[in-house]
Amino acid sequence: MERDGNGWVECDLGHRHWGLHGAAGLLIHTVDADGTLRVLLQHRADWCHHGGTWGLPGGARDSHESVEEAALREAVEETALDGTKVRLRHTFVDDHGGWSYTTVYGDALTALPTVPNEESAALEWVATDRVNNLPLHPGFGHTWAQVQLVPITVVVDAANVLGATPNGWWKGRAGATEQLGQQLAELHARTLHTPTPDDSAVTGVVTEVHVVVEGAARSAQLPGVLHEVRAPESGDDALVASSGELSKRGRLVVVTSDRELRDRVTAATEGGAAVRGARWLLDVLDQAPHSAPETGLC
Ligand SMILES: [Zn+2]
């Protein structure tokens, strides 16, 4: 039934919450050309519960809706953003017993235009490193501590990945590299469960993709969103040097299946990079966005 989720409920922890069937919010992000990661936040109108604070667009789930549907519907109502331009990826559930709040991660390729409705004093794409400077809605403040997005840089050994791809070379080196480049562009601004050097995982967003190309592949035309590393001599040396530099700036995933090279990358980054094989990357590229209901970190 339309809006059958509207109402107050007391959770097992003794709080009072809005949403008889729980609530959901959309954590939608984008990445600027310079790599700045931004999330769309709503400055709540003064008359709202916790007015004047900043939080995610979202609200009560109706009984017939998935959490993804609820988050997207509420966000579209409150921001007028084009929901067809949002790719839903993961969810994070904060379960209080008798009531839960689900954060739905959404990727947007650009800072989509928004129009505030009467519940919003303002809507803003806020740089993630500024979020904690704002007066946050208490619920969002609690959630943000758990879901805050980590910027991730991915470095790809293009020749090695193509070598692991069935029929990877059928268009010749430059053509095959261009085809891989089209796929790698899809990684940009994407939510990713990211491996870490110690094999735990964080949820982050890919803010930069660096592609190392060598030999005949250097003539390939790659999408502008990718950072090209054209190796004048050895692609391996270029991959090691780039990884060493990039590991100083933040979280890094390096993709190559070459065992010897993996050891060199680990040494050059002083263990600061997660090194994964081509199979890991191909699996990530195969994962389509979804809107199916699910629970927990998927
Ligand atoms: Zn509660």
Helix and strand topology:
Elements: E1 8-10, E2 16-18, E3 23-31, E4 37-44, E5 54-55, E6 58-60, H1 67-79, E7 86-95, E8 100-108, E9 120-127, H2 138-147, E10 150-157, H3 158-163, H4 172-185, E11 191-195, E12 201-213, E13 227-230, H5 235-246, E14 251-255, H6 259-268, E15 273-276, H7 278-286
Parallel strand pairs: 3-8, 10-12, 10-14, 12-13, 14-15
Antiparallel strand pairs: 1-2, 3-4, 3-6, 4-5, 4-9, 7-8, 11-12
Bound molecules: zinc ion.
Residues 11, 13, 15, 17, 96, 99 line the site of zinc ion.
CATH class of the largest domain: Alpha Beta
Number of strands: 15
Question: With helices defined by DSSP (H or I, 4 residues minimum), what is the helix count?
Answer: 7
The number of domains: 2
Polypeptide structure, described:
By secondary structure, the protein is an alpha/beta fold. The protein folds into two domains: 8-147, Nucleoside Triphosphate Pyrophosphohydrolase, CATH 3.90.79; 151-286, Rossmann fold (3-Layer(aba) Sandwich). Helices cover 25% and strands 32% of the residues. The chain has helices at 67-79, 138-147, 158-163, 172-185, 235-246, 259-268, 278-286; strands spanning 8-10, 16-18, 23-31, 37-44, 54-55, 58-60, 86-95, 100-108, 120-127, 150-157, 191-195, 201-213, 227-230, 251-255, 273-276. The strands form three sheets. Strands 3, 4, 5, 6, 7, 8 and 9 form a seven-stranded mixed beta sheet that branches. Strands 10, 11, 12, 13, 14 and 15 form a six-stranded mixed beta sheet that branches. The longest helix is centred in the middle third of the chain and has 14 residues, at 172-185. It is elongated and about 65 Å long. The site of zinc ion (ZN) has 6 residues, from loops.
